Amino acid sequence: MLVDTCYNTCVSPTVFKIKDYRFVFFSREEKRVHIHVSSPDGEAKFWIEPKVELVKNYGFSERQIVELERIVKEHINEIRDAWSRHFGC
Predict the structure, then answer these.
(1) From the CA atom positions of the chain, what is the Rg in Å?
(2) Alpha helices in the chain (DSSP H)
(3) pLDDT band of 1, cuts 50, 70, 90
(4) 4, 41, 68, 81 — which has fewest CB within 10 A?
C-alpha cells in the first residue's frame, strides 16, 4: 500500500480538486508545463504555456471542456507554482 500512496503523491500529485474533477501532474511526461484533468466522465490534458490550450480529450462534453478551460485559466498561477515545486524548476 505504501507504493500506491507514493505513486499517487510523488508520480501523479493532485494539484487541486473541484467538483468531480481532479487536476494532476504526471511526473514521467514531457517538460512543457501542462495539467491533466480526470473525473468519472473522462480525461483531458491542457497545455499551460505559452497559452492554455486543450491537447487531448477523452469523454468530456464540449460544455465540460469549456468549464475545464475556464477553471485552468482561473488557477493558472496555482498550477505554475505547483509545477515549479514538484519539478524543481
Answers:
(1) 13
(2) 2-6, 62-74, 76-87
(3) very low
(4) 4
At 1, the amino acid letter reads: M
Taking the CA of residue 6 as centre, how many other CA atoms within 13 Å lie in the half-sphere pointing to its CB? 3
Query: What band does 87 get if pLDDT is binned at 50, 70 and 90?
Result: confident
Q: d(Cα 49, Cα 30) in Å, to the nearest integer?
A: 13
Residue 87 C-beta-side C-alpha neighbours within 13 Å: 20
CA distance 23 to 40: 13
Q: Omega before 13 cis (within 30°)?
A: no
Q: For residues 88, 14, 69 and 29, what is the CA-based torsion angle, rounded to 10 degrees?
A: 50
DSSP state letter for 31: S
CA neighbours within 13 Å on the CB side: how many for 38?
8
Q: What is the pLDDT of residue 5?
A: 42
